[in-house]
Amino acid sequence: MPGVAGQAGLCGHSLKQGKTDGAVGVCVRTVRWMTYLSPLGYLLGIEGAALLRGFREGSAGRAFVETRIAEIRALLDTPALAQAEGVTASPGTISVTDVYRSWAPHYDAPGNQMIDIEQRVLAEFARVLRPGGSLVISDAHLLVSYLRPTLARRPGPDGRPSLLTEHHRPLSAYLAAALPLGFQVRQCEEPRRPRHSLDPETAPDPLPAHMSWDLLHWCPEASAAALDDSPIAVVWRFQLDGVRKAEQPER
Questions:
Q1: Among candidates 192, 190, 193, 194, which has minimal Cα distance to 237?
Q2: C-alpha 168: how far from its chain's center?
Q3: 34 touches 3 (CB < 8 A)
Q4: pLDDT averaged over the chain?
Q5: Which of 41, 34, 27 is nearest to 4 (CA)?
Q6: Residue 216 domain-assigned?
Q7: Total structural domains in the chain?
Q8: Which of 38, 54, 61, 102 could form a disulfide with 86, with the two C-beta atoms 3.0–4.6 Å apart?
Q9: Helix, strand, or coil (residue 112)
Q10: DSSP string, 123-183
Q11: From CA 238, how far away is CA 233, in angstroms rounded?
């Protein structure tokens, strides 16, 4: 199970003592999973996502499919990618605080599409929140965690590059938490990534051979097919019933 920090391994052996038939000994060892971040592997995944989405949405004509296959062959034959070393990283060895600290200086830089999304959320808070009123919450969409490049962070305690352990919730988790408390769903939106969000004018020269958002410039058509108009956030507006669950008399 990729992404799991560790598991217990069991190894059995016989221990003969005198006339005893034997006893089973168990030694427990911790196995830490590693994630190999391959630039070429990520691009092949984007090509695959573009094909699967095209098949599902009916946009994968013959020319599109043949172009994707030809591009996959070209990526595999590109020395800069085929010979590029990936990064082996340890999941769960960096904290959320560390990630935000490294991201904060660049948060307001051009191209951060989450700014527009968060401004909408804050405006919604200002409009609806009042005593006994509504609750508005937002979160990164589960799908975006699969499509974006996974970036290694600074070395963790084991000296290896580190990965933040992310906990993306399915939409059903919000309902499971809110409905028993007396909240009712009033609105749910899934803001989407703008079309043509990959600007060819921003493509670096040469193109990178390491994990980066700029990898998408290797296959811009496939990147657009996989990422454009995909949900990047979920915004809920809940409203409480007349009687709060917390105000019900204790047993």
A1: 190
A2: 7
A3: no
A4: 75
A5: 34
A6: yes
A7: 1
A8: 38
A9: coil
A10: HHHHHH--TT-EEEEEEE-TTHHHHSPP--EEE-TTSSEEEEPP-PPPHHHHHHHHGGGTE
A11: 16
Q: Does some domain include residue 237?
A: yes
Q: What mean pLDDT is predicted for residues 47-70?
A: 95
Gap between the Cα atoms of 35 and 12, Å rounded? 28
Express each pLDDT in 203-234 by its tens digit: 999 999 998 889 999 999 999 999 999 998 89
Residue 172 lies in a domain: yes
Q: Is the pLDDT of residue 201 over 50?
A: yes
Give the separation between CA 207 and CA 118, rounded to whole angstroms.
31
Residue 11 bridge partners (DSSP): 27
Q: What is the DSSP letter of 36?
A: E
Q: What is the mean pLDDT of residues 59-73?
A: 96
Is residue 5 a part of any domain in this protein? no
pLDDT value, residue 20: 43
Q: CA-based angle 80:81:86, to the nearest 5?
A: 115
The pLDDT of residue 80 is above 60: yes
Helix residue spans in the chain (DSSP H): 39-57, 62-76, 79-82, 96-103, 114-128, 144-147, 171-178, 220-227
| Residue ranges making up the domain that contains 128 | 34-242
